[in-house]
Structures are given as C-alpha cells and as structure tokens.
Write a sequence for this structure.
C-alpha cells in the first residue's frame, strides 16, 4: 500500500466524521514518507489531547505502519473557528 | 544509561534462554525459537514497565539529548531544556531494535519520540509542544514537584 495524502484524508473524513482535514506531505523535508495533518472533528469534543491523538492513530493504524513520521493537530469545530478568527 | 539498558536486556534474554533445557523440545526447532522470542518480548515489556517508573521524566528518542538524531526527538529535548529539566532518563531507540519495537507496543503508540511523566504516557513531540505552548507542561511538572525554569520567580 502506498500511503498518500489523499488516502489519509479520505480515511479521516470518513471514519472520524471530520469537518475539515488538511494533509501536508512533508516527505521532502524528511528522510522518508512523512505527513503533517490538521484534523477538525466533533469526535474530539471533551477529549484530552492524548485521547484525540489515539483516536487518529487508531483510524490510521494500517497506514502508520508504512510511514516514517506523522504530525497531527486535532481541533474541535469550535477551536477551529476560534483559530481561524485569530 | 543506554549501555545499562542494553546490558540488562541482554541479561534478561540470556536468563530466559537458560530456562530451557539443552535438548530440543519434541514440537520442533521452529516453536522453540518462537517461544524463546516470545519470552524475550515479554521480558522487554516488563523491563519497559520498570524503566518508565524509575524516573519522573522518561523519554524514548532517536539519538541522545547531546546528539538527537531526528527533528522530533530534538524538539522534545529542546522543550525539556527550556523548562530547565535536565535530570531525566533518555533512552536511545536507535541503539536497540527490540527497544524500538517494544516501546511502540508498550505505549500502543506508533512513533518515536515518546514521553512519560510520572510513569504515565503523555504522548509524542506534538503533544509535548502543545502542552508547552498552552502552559500545561509547566503545570504537569509542578504537580510532579519540578519547578519549570519558565516560571517567573515571584
């Protein structure tokens, strides 16, 4: 399986009911397949950071085995709106 | 510190091998090897359990605090340095493939670096950075009896 930004985006949109996903392929900056993701989902509501990240990790478990590095920023829709207005 | 870990892992592996009789088990050599590997893996999980309890701040990184071998591991080292935390245990996963794989299973976390505070898994570089930016890290350190260098002296 070749992991691409599209593959990751589709999975996150579907399984986490994400309202907004931005995936950046940071592989050129690193030695191997690496991605940076911004994920906005209601499913993060009320969850501390670690739980949010574990939720994402669970969703992308198969893909994470293939890639070298993964950065993630997890926001609720409210946090996302607030960040946009700043 | 890393040499100590390597030595202890070697001892554990040798110990588990010594528990098996020198004659071959009737089931065949393949299962014998598998059983021995399983035992070593279980030992690693146990060792990791002890490692994260031994020190208040424990990190698993690529490289060493003096010479990190990856940008994310370096970020963890720099953040700790900023807070004046210099007394912590840092384990180099590049030294030991079993450690590298073992800690991922132990924490149920797919990447390195990994940070443990007070024996509890905190997360990777992303989470530590966000905690640093939000002020949560100062608070967590404070709860552990560590005064962050970033707290202004009153």
């Amino acid at each position: 399986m070749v992991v691409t930004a599209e593959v990751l985006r589709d999975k996150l949109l579907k399984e986490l009911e994400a309202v907004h996903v931005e995936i950046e392929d940071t592989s050129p900056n690193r030695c191997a397949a690496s991605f940076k993701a911004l994920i906005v989902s209601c499913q993060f509501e009320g969850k501390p950071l670690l739980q949010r990240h574990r939720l994402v990790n669970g969703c992308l478990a198969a893909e994470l085995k293939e890639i070298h590095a993964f950065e993630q920023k997890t926001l609720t829709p409210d946090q996302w709106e607030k960040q946009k207005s700043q | 510190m890393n040499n100590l870990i390597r030595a202890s892992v070697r001892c554990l592996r040798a110990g588990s091998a010594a528990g098996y009789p020198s004659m071959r088990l009737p089931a065949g050599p393949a299962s014998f090897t598998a059983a021995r590997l399983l035992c070593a893996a279980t030992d690693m999980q146990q060792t990791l359990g002890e490692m994260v309890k031994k020190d208040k701040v424990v990190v698993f990184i690529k490289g060493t605090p003096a010479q990190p071998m990856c940008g994310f591991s370096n970020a963890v080292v720099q953040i700790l340095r900023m807070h004046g935390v210099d007394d912590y245990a840092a384990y180099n996963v590049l030294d030991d493939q079993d450690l590298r794989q073992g800690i991922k299973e132990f924490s149920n976390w797919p990447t390195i670096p990994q940070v443990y505070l007070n024996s509890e898994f905190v997360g990777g570089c992303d989470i530590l950075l966000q905690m640093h930016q939000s002020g949560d890290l100062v608070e967590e350190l404070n709860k552990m009896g560590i005064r962050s260098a970033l707290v202004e002296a009153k």
